[in-house]
């Protein structure tokens, strides 16, 4: 009979070695992310059987005002054997450790895919006036094991967070991804719709030049990002956030975070950041100017990132979150329309789950979030 798993803190070096030993782990579960999220207190946890490290996760602790009690958050994690028939042996010692550290509740996002829809399926669904949500569309691929994971979590007292159009308070439940494995540039272009191919050609013909940026170029990126925020109506992060992100992620690996700049006749027209951990690459932040939109710098920079990610060994180019709406009257439908043009696939994850450890504090916390949101 196997000895029980034990959960205890691990060093940054141990955690990073674990991440590097896996095909891929979410960049939100790397040790560096604790530095980026400085308003939270970070801790690296390891799952051990004896001296063997079998799982790892980054915990971010958010303190309640005036109390030394915390929400323990593991975004897109932890990294463990989610296919295990006995999830209790993994999650119970984690809960015990976090409770002893002062957590009143735990939030996590199991990196488990439940369903996938290919681009043609999504396009057909968008054209169907009867369908309004991606969740109602029959999937091209379903993962029965993922549904079993959800059942096990409920049995252990975990609660699935409700989502608003596919977005929860934390990370998105629905992402859009482009498979890269064993695909040539011609394969990737052929999968795109006519508009995407036309825009890529237009950018090339107009003389848009995409280059890799350095840390000193973050200021130029941030100027365009601030313009984008004002145009699209969101609150921009300060330049210091991106400088911290650059320093923390590139300290783990020079190619962990990459900055891309698209220029037209010397003018910066689009800028993006790309994160890659193992075989998974994520489009992280993007920005574009209102001027010269006709030269299609945003399409050019995306196309360059896809090719570079593939050349760097990525098998997935992740465009991150989409809402699940298919409703033409919903302003968010443009997001899925833009991304589906790449010819990738919509991917549904298991979502985020909470475990209350102190029911009174947890109830107060969730009530506060509802009032705030």
Automatic annotation (TrEMBL):
Signal sequence segment: none
Designated name of the protein: Peptidoglycan bridge formation glycyltransferase FemA/FemB family protein
Domain of life of the organism encoding this protein: Bacteria
Organism: Aeromicrobium phragmitis
Membrane-spanning ranges: none
GO biological process, one term: peptidoglycan biosynthetic process
Similarity remark: Belongs to the FemABX family.
PROSITE patterns listed in its UniProt record: FEMABX
PANTHER family: LIPID II:GLYCINE GLYCYLTRANSFERASE
UniProt GO molecular function: aminoacyltransferase activity
Pfam families linked: FemAB
InterPro entries: Acyl_CoA_acyltransferase, FEMABX, PG_Glycine_Bridge_Synth
Keywords of this entry: Acyltransferase, Cell shape, Cell wall biogenesis/degradation, Peptidoglycan synthesis, Transferase
């Amino acid at each position: 009979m196997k000895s029980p798993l034990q959960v205890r803190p691990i060093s940054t070096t141990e955690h990073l070695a674990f991440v590097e030993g896996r095909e891929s782990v979410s960049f939100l579960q790397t040790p560096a992310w604790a530095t980026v999220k400085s308003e939270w207190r970070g801790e690296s946890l390891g799952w051990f059987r004896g001296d063997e490290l079998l799982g790892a996760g980054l915990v971010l602790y958010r303190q309640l005002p005036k109390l030394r009690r915390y929400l323990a958050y593991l975004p897109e994690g932890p990294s463990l054997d989610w296919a295990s028939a006995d999830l209790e042996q993994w999650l119970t010692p984690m809960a015990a450790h976090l409770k002893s550290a002062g957590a009143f509740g735990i939030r996590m996002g199991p990196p488990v895919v439940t369903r996938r829809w290919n681009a043609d399926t999504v396009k057909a669904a968008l054209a169907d006036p009867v369908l309004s949500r991606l969740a109602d569309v029959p999937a091209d691929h379903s993962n029965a094991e993922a549904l079993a994971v959800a059942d096990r979590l409920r049995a252990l007292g975990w609660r699935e967070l409700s989502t608003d159009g596919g977005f929860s308070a934390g990370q998105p439940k629905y992402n859009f991804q482009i498979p890269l494995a064993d695909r040539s540039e011609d394969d990737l272009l052929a999968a795109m719709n006519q508009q995407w191919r036309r825009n890529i050609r237009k950018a090339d013909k107009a003389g848009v030049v995409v280059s890799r940026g350095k840390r000193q170029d973050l200021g130029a990126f941030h100027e365009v990002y601030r313009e984008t925020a004002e145009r699209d109506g969101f609150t921009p992060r300060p330049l210091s956030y991106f400088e911290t992100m650059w320093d923390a992620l590139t300290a783990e690996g020079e190619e962990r975070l990459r900055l891309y700049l698209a220029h037209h006749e010397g003018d910066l027209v689009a800028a993006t950041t790309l994160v890659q951990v193992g075989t998974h690459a994520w489009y992280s932040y993007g920005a574009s100017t209102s001027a010269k939109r006709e030269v299609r710098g945003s399409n050019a920079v995306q196309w360059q990132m896809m090719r570079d990610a593939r050349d760097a060994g990525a098998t997935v180019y992740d465009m991150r979150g989409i809402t699940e709406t298919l409703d033409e009257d919903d302003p968010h439908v443009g997001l899925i329309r833009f991304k589906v043009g790449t010819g990738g696939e919509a991917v549904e994850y298991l979502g985020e789950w909470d475990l209350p450890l102190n029911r009174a504090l947890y109830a107060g916390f969730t009530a506060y979030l509802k009032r705030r949101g």
